[in-house]
């Protein structure tokens, strides 16, 4: 395999992991624009653990994910008190703070960046990405998935149905951040060098774009979004400078045609469901009990 | 009836929104097993009473007792666990969930803790919670819609799904906010029969907000009339029809005449 191809595929796997980090809070109706910050925490924590504590990357990276998740859990309590655009701004600020702290942290190289000694290759990273996808899929096949979507759809009604809205929002935020941290750890151990500048707001926005364009309602959406939007610029590479113009145009077209993302829950249910068409035009009375009741 | 005490008591409950007194010194009792209606002109505070009972709004004064236990300070999300489930005036199903998943939302309060949260309802085909929800849908004649996205379903079907969802919580007290609104006469009759069946021995006690006086007369044994946040009358549907004050403020017509669904009928 050529170095270029491996590089692209590694980036694809890392982006898939990042996308699930963005998917969890979005599934609960929350926009996290500080994902790059949590990815940075994961990258630096895992790099420090493998460089200094000499842990294997296979231990250092999951542990770094836990660190990123724990930080998210602590900041979630004040940050998730804000809503909508204010939540987006608060998480954006969070990402900036992490970046600023790292720039001033001499123990991990500060502004000069931080070399990572241990190295992992594509198969490890691809396996890690597959594990993340499967775990998130399993999680969303439990009551957790239903509750998170209920919170996303109608917080008030979810609360009256006994769902602890805040607990599910915090859980989704922290789990997503932990996954972003794992993505950061994978990135660090393949590209062997990390710097604070990489984990900037445009990384956060790109991750959110993967999810929004792929679709926030199904577990497949982020996978598809990350795959398409990692590979599309590479496919368009032939036209050199124009490729980002074509890429941006493609984004706008998709947003216009599929405002809820490429993959939606309703569509997936139609595809995976029985062959029966949706009985939407049937008489309303069919839904009510037949005579003789009571 | 095994227990005698009332299922629900509101004692001198008041609620203000800013300077507006929406509920004033309201006391009412819902007797166990007695299907009770809450009626009154639009803006009388009927839905607000539901919102106070379910904890959407905190009350400013008074007490709310469920089965003798004071739930005044109980957070809204815990009240369904105490046995209060409701439907909404304007349907509030989860648009991104299927019919079956919406019904499983109703089980949330009975499937608690980490084991409940991680219950593999969409993973294991014969998961018992999933099967219970499917059985409830089949019982209600809605099983054909189990995989449908609720937003695409007819209004009457959505209302029915909301009722099934509320019942999944196995409530002691079921609050229905205008269950017959928007239904045609055939559907209304079917709904009445179904509610009678649900509330038969061992089922929840029903408290229903409704404008359709025929429906109330056929279904309910007790009627409470609200106007401007105060209780102005209480009694059997027949008593209420004959009550001059109720006729003046709400029914606005000779006793027994069918109320149009949206008529405020105030000061007729």
**Topology of chain A as a string of helices (H) and strands (E):** HHHHEHHHHEHHHH
CATH class of the largest domain in chain B: Alpha Beta
The name CATH uses for the topology of the largest domain in chain B is Rossmann fold
Strand content of chain B: 15-25%
Walk me through what this model shows:
The complex is a heterodimer of chains A (294) and B (268). With 294 residues, chain A is an all-alpha fold. Chain A is 68% helix and 1% strand. Chain A is built from 12 helices and 2 strands. A two-stranded antiparallel sheet of chain A has the order 1-2. The longest helix of chain A is centred in the middle third of the chain and has 27 residues, at 165-191. Chain A is globular, with a radius of gyration of 21 Å. Residues 274-294 of chain A have low confidence and may be disordered. By secondary structure, chain B is an alpha/beta fold. Chain B has 2 domains: 1-83 and 172-268, Rossmann fold; 93-170, no CATH class. In chain B, the strands form 2 sheets. Chain B has a 6-stranded mixed beta sheet with strand order 6-7-8-3-9-10, sandwiched between helices. A 4-stranded antiparallel beta sheet of chain B has the order 2-1-4-5, with helices on one face. In chain B, a hairpin with a 2-residue loop joins strand 1 and strand 2 (20-30). Chain B starts with 7 loop residues before the first strand and ends in a 17-residue tail after the last helix. Classes of the chains: A mainly alpha (294), B alpha/beta (268). At the A-B interface, helix 5, helix 6, helix 7 and helix 12 of A face helix 2, helix 3, helix 6 and helix 7 of B.
